């Protein structure tokens, strides 16, 4: 089934429908699941259903035509606040949550959600990429979570409960989103003209871990071609780490001058190695210790990428560690 164009999350739809029908809709939610599976899209559609002026919220079926529905889609509804990390920041700025130093607690999401609804219904706030809340930002949400304003709904979107402070997790209802089935990803790639060839769409869908975002990235011919070359090198009896490090560095630098773009590509490359060693572990019998150690080293490298480690040093150390 498809809920207003959103694929793969029918169980979550029914969970919300039952809660609203029973009058037991929580005030704070933490949406978790892999990136690129539709959590943000779901949150905005849920906000539209809650704010629709023509159909009851319990139906979870927004008309998509009334003023409220069109304003939600346009991002101009006065009772919907959406906060995300600016491209030039490493974390969600405190100012977006509680205002700048001159207007503390008089501006920002926490202030706005506490105001009386402009259109007489609810207030809905969405914090996208909540994994990127620093400790100070997360702590400033605690008062809103502990004493939620009447008829307000706050949705935090992240990838894992472990990436949120315990004080945040304990005050939110956890909603888990599953990775999309491969057939669903292939269908979306084709229907949205993201991939032209059906066989390519299915091939990419089988390797994207249920993430449409990851599938779109894998659909880039140069990325897929490098993946094949990388896996060939990793399968060699003796890994030439120096030669491979040079090839990886060249490929990563081709992503552009921006550090974020290069980190993203390096993360993709290391992710391919994670996929390779995981598949080896599943196929092996007997002593798997060496493969497990290489997998652990790849996972460690992913963490170092997220911590902005020096690119050249990281690539060399990573590949030396899996020889």
The overall average pLDDT, rounded, is 93
Q: Kindly report how far apart the N and C termini lie.
A: 47 Å
Structural class: alpha/beta
When the domains are counted, the total is 2
User: How helical, in percent, are the residues?
Assistant: 40-55%
By CATH, the superfamily of the largest domain comes out as P-loop containing nucleotide triphosphate hydrolases
Number of helices: 16
CATH names the topology of the largest domain as Rossmann fold
Task: Write down how many β-strands occur, each being a DSSP E stretch of 2 or more residues.
Answer: 7
Give the SSE order as H and E letters: EEHEHHEHHEHHEHEHHHHHHHH
Commentary on this structure:
By secondary structure, the chain is α/β, with parallel strands linked by helices. 50% of the residues lie in helices and 9% in strands. It contains 16 helices and 7 strands. It has helices at residues 10-21, 39-51, 67-74, 94-98, 109-113, 135-139, 142-146, 166-169, 182-191, 198-205, 212-218, 221-234, 241-253, 259-283, 289-306, 311-320; strands spanning 2-3, 6-7, 28-32, 80-83, 123-127, 152-158, 173-176. The strands form 2 sheets. It has a 5-stranded parallel beta sheet. Strands 1-2 form a two-stranded antiparallel ribbon. A hairpin with a 2-residue loop joins strand 1 (2-3) and strand 2 (6-7). The radius of gyration is 22 Å and the shape is globular. It starts with a strand and ends with a helix.
């Amino acid at each position: 089934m498809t809920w207003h164009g959103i694929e793969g999350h029918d169980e979550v739809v029914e969970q919300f429908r039952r809660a609203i029908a029973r009058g037991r809709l929580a005030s704070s939610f933490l949406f978790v699941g892999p990136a690129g599976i539709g959590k943000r899209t779901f949150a905005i559609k849920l906000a539209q259903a809650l704010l629709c002026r023509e159909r009851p919220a319990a139906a979870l079926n927004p008309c998509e035509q009334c003023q409220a529905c069109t304003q939600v889609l346009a991002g101009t509804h006065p009772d919907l606040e959406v906060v995300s990390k600016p491209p030039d920041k490493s974390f969600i700025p405190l100012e977006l949550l509680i205002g700048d130093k001159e207007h503390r607690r008089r501006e920002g999401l926490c202030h706005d959600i506490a105001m009386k609804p402009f259109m007489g219904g609810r207030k809905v706030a969405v914090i996208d990429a909540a994994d990127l809340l620093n400790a100070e930002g997360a702590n400033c949400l605690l008062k809103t979570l502990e004493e939620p304003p009447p008829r307000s709904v706050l949705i935090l979107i992240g990838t894992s409960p472990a990436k949120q402070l315990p004080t945040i997790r304990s005050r939110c209802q956890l909603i888990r989103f599953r990775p999309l089935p491969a057939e669903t990803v292939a269908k979306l790639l084709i229907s949205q003209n993201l991939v032209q060839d059906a066989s390519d769409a299915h091939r990419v869908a089988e390797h994207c871990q249920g993430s449409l975002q990851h599938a779109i990235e894998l659909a880039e011919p140069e990325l897929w071609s490098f993946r094949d070359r990388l896996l060939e090198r990793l399968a060699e009896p003796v890994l030439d780490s120096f030669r491979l490090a040079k090839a990886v560095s060249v490929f990563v630098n081709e992503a552009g001058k921006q550090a974020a773009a290069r980190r993203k590509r390096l993360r993709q490359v290391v992710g391919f190695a994670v996929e390779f060693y995981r598949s080896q572990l599943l196929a092996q019998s007997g002593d798997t210790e060496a493969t497990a150690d290489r997998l652990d080293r790849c996972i460690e490298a992913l963490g170092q990428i997220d911590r902005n480690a020096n690119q050249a040093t990281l690539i060399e150390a990573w590949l030396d560690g899996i020889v």
